[in-house]
Amino acid sequence: MKKIFILFVSMMVLKANAQNGKYETAMASTLQEFGQAKDANSLAVVELKFERIANVEKDKWQPYYYAALIKAQLSFMQAGNPDALADEAAELANKAVAIQNNSELSCVKSMIATAKMLVDPQNRWMQYNAESNHYLEMAKQQDSTNPRPYTIQANNMINTPEQLGGGCKTALPLAQKALALYVEFKPANAFNPVWGKEMVEQIINKCR
Amino acid sequence: MRTFFIPLIVLGLFTASLTKAQTKVTGLVTDLKGHPLHGVGITLLGTYDGTITDSTGQFAFVTLEKGDKIVEAKIMGYTIKQEKVVLGTASNALINLHFELREEVSELKAVSVTAGSFAAGDKKRAATVLSALDMYTTGGANADVTASIKTLPGAQQVGEQEGLFVRGGEGYETKQYIDGMVVNNPYYASSPGIAARGRFAPSLFRGNVFSTGGYSAIYGQALSSVLLLESVDLPEKSEVSASITSVFLGAGTQQLTKNKKASYGFNYGYTNLTPYFALLSQKPDYFMVPQFQTADANFRVKTKSGGMIKYYSTFGTNQLGIRNADIDSLNLKDAFQLKNINWYNNITWRENLGKGWKLNAGFSFAINNDKIHQQLQDANNHSVVIGMPILDAKSFQLNNQQSYTQFRAVFEKKLTGLNVIRMGTDYWYNHQNLRYNNYTSIINNHYNAYFAEADVHVTNGLAAKIGGRAEYASLIQRWNIAPRLALALKTGKHAQMSAAYGIFYQTPENNYFIQYSAKLPQLNYMKATHYLVNYIKTTLLQTFRIEAYYKQYQQLVKTIPDTSTNGYGFAKGIELFWRDKKTFKNFDYWISYSYLNTERNYLNYPQTLQPGYTTPHTFNLVTKKFITSLKTGFNFTYTFATGRPYYNIQSVNTPPKYVLADEGKTPAYHNLGFSLNYLPNLGKPHAKTYVVWVVSVTNLLNNTQTFGYNYSANGMNKVAIHPPIKQFFFIGCFLSWGVDRSQDAINNNL
Questions:
Q1: Mind listing the UniProt keywords for this protein, alphabetically (chain A) (predicted)?
Q2: Partner A contacted by B586 (CB < 8 A)
Q3: CATH classification of B117-747, choosing from 2.60.40.4070, 2.40.170.20, 3.40.50.720, 3.20.20.70?
């Protein structure tokens, strides 16, 4: 279960070529770096870049979203104090939510709750598992076409032992549902998140 | 001069060749001691430009910005620092900065004062010692708070009476508190020679602190130890539960309102040991089989400013009647019968008052009534009168009615950093009406306490807790002042040392205030002075702790020649604790060892003696293994304790005094406890019913456990004190609907 999210930064498919304003250039290059970042150090560098962009572009939720996403991932990777990293991620996510509350941000909040839970599962399960599921349900309600809540759920399940209700049996239908959504999914903005398709494909391949 | 100019010219050419003025900002970030800081975010405020420091604390970035700007250095755990820069001028194409960051005192990094205590359930700190789940899954503990706590160092394995006997202290020297309110009868009433269970289920509490010494000035009237229990706030979800077991039946519900701001719940349980004893071949001679009825209710509501009001009430009755062979005669029996009624109420209010002030207020009210009737009986279980005072005195009636009322208020003010001051007051009123045969005594005690305490965090690595407590008990009619001091020093990334000192007072138990002779006893507070030092190393999954202590007892109660507080004693020892969830996969274990050296001259002891409830060496090994494929957890607890001394202290008439007529040592104590938890619906995501089966056996190896000896009045007959039931078998099925608590068990495997 601790391995859960380490993989999730797969390909960042970018369609940002058409625009070349200052924001667009910076986002495009930082997203590219994000896609190439392989370790905690390079992720930390990218995270700070998103934060710097976010602090200038007060009306855009995307840079805060990516900063929060990376902080959550750093927490999963235990790159520093996982608890404090998750708290910082939550702070960034809340800043993004203040700009626009949407399905993608609920997904990131769910992941942050999972990160908090993993610090001390035995004592935190009750609280943070409920919170994580709450945000996943919220994400589905906010945008029923978003494949990422199902991706996260499928990923949670594939990393949970079969005897405990996880494994392929529960993960596969979720991954298939996500994959179907990926086919239709069109991001509203060039910098909106598009990640996750490879992840569910891997789950489907593994479980087939 | 020439060589000096060349680089400048080159630099000038270089910058001039660019269409935009470019500035390179470089620098170094260190802490106040000059150690480089890695991973510090460097931002040119208001722009996208910036970078991060490398492992040598260096950074460099290039910017095309112009004019007056601010460079900020920021990293978790340190105060943010900013520097003004002027960019875009040819003379200033290279800017070098040095940031010195001050480390913030933060809750996650700072040392906490831990001398003397085992804390669990603090959500901010992950190192948990004994959570509620641990208590349910400690083999042989039968989900009893006290039995689980006894696997930690400091507590003696006393099986013939209830209570936590900590570091040479009597059971009554440990007080239990729920949300700051003292609980005077935390155990069910029982007959002599049997330790009763605690009244409170582990699941009522989200956290607990077991302090074996040197604890805070907020708590008083406990000479040796406090067990601080913190009740849960709101439940996660609504649920209905039921339990069907070999000894009890129970049902209850817990409801959370839709807005998740309030909850209420109630439970009822009925225990009857008749079916259990029907299956046993060897059984104690119960003429009234132990029966318990308990009902509890709770109500909790969140207040507008983030505070909480909680009410908890529990009502219980229990009864039992047991015959034991009379020790002073051949064929006679002592038929002991007990009926107990207990009602405990606790209402607490936690509130944020603004400006960093917090209030913790509470009111509790409890009544406890023991009706004891003992009869001397012949071989046919008929009441007899022999005509010998020593035997006829065994037939008696005792009716003990007590009430307890407590008011308490603690104000807390948060200062800068983690510094906090607390102050408050406690008022307890205890009324006792004791009727022994035809003799009645009434005792009233009004107790007032004022206390103040400061948590001082000098740095992340050094903290102190300084406090004091002043108390007045109307039974004693004088004030006492109890200073407390504890220090903590960080010695490594996960390690710290703590030391504590404190004076602790406790009013003697009520029965010593009863006027037996013409002279009313003039008693003082019992007094203990604690000195202790410990070292803890703790990571997420492992905890190592070693603690050494010295305690001095003064003003202990002596009962000869007259009741006085001229007793004294000492206790010293070393304790070790090791818990490890890491080394073996899916396997959790802890080891505790206590060394105790203690002697006292108190009660009727004719000289300084090692008390009969103490032993020098106690060892516990607790193991927990959950096998996912079987959906079953297997828990074993092995306890070993060296023998305890026992004495026959006899009175002689000429000259009138007590003498040590006999003494000895009990055999060593061994206990292997086992429990199994089976969760059949585990992992069925849509299961509506959550089921846990529990099988438990105490003393699996059927060892003979001897807690001491009773002597006949003439000293000729000596009878070993054994548990009334050598082994206890339990099987139960616990059901709940509404919350999938199987998730609880999953955690063990994460």
A1: Signal
A2: no
A3: 2.40.170.20
